[in-house]
Amino acid sequence: MDIYYETTRQYEKDLRKFSDVDQEKIEDVINKTFEAYNVNKKLPSVKVYRPCKVKLPQGIESSLFVLRITRDIRLIFSIDDDILYNKTVVTLFRIVRHDKLEASFNSIIESIYQWSKNTSEE
Fold first, then answer.
1. What is the pLDDT of residues 19-53, one digit of tens each?
2. CATH of the domain at 55
């Protein structure tokens, strides 16, 4: 499967706040992590975790994860295999310092929940 990356405006904004060296490290870890996933369909449990499982309306479970880039930098992302188009879609939501992780993660959860709730009501 091919890997297809989607980024949010907030991710792009977050990324620009980091130094060039940090940006290179971020890109390198992202590429290595998802290339490895593409080969063995497993995320590295040492670097990837779910702060909590998110249940959306209609019993849907979110595929939201956190990737440890460095000791202080975290990536919030989702990953979904699209079998129909033979690709893996990785959505990069935020890239933040560890001390901003909880607030950023909760904000994304709330946005996804509201979007999911509004779409299920239509």
1. 999 999 999 999 999 999 988 888 888 899 887 66
2. 3.30.2310.20
